[in-house]
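Morning F.,

Quick status update on the modeling queue. The single chain you submitted on Monday has been processed. Sequence for confirmation:
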Amino acid sequence: MPNQDVIAQLETYKLKDRFIIDDWEDREAVPTSRATITYMRQEVLRFADFLIQQLQANVPDLQQQVQQFFNDWDNENFTQDETEFIVEVEYEAMRIAGLKIDDLLI
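Structure tokens below.
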């Protein structure tokens, strides 16, 4: 799939409302504070924007760039559960971008 198609799908992905009450209930978890949920949403958008930038730049090894993104990710403001939830939401963006999710160390 050409990068423009992938970028368009990622732009659509960014519009989806995430971390709503139903999502927390599906995880059998108690929702965190509104401020933290807002910050979690921002992290997902930041990751999607990162993917879009990499695709626009036509980087030769997107997989490696994404691994570096996660290596550099400062997630200390989130609990382990919140971090896992963020990454699970980002899996969809990773699939859209054609990444090998199982090969990433997150």
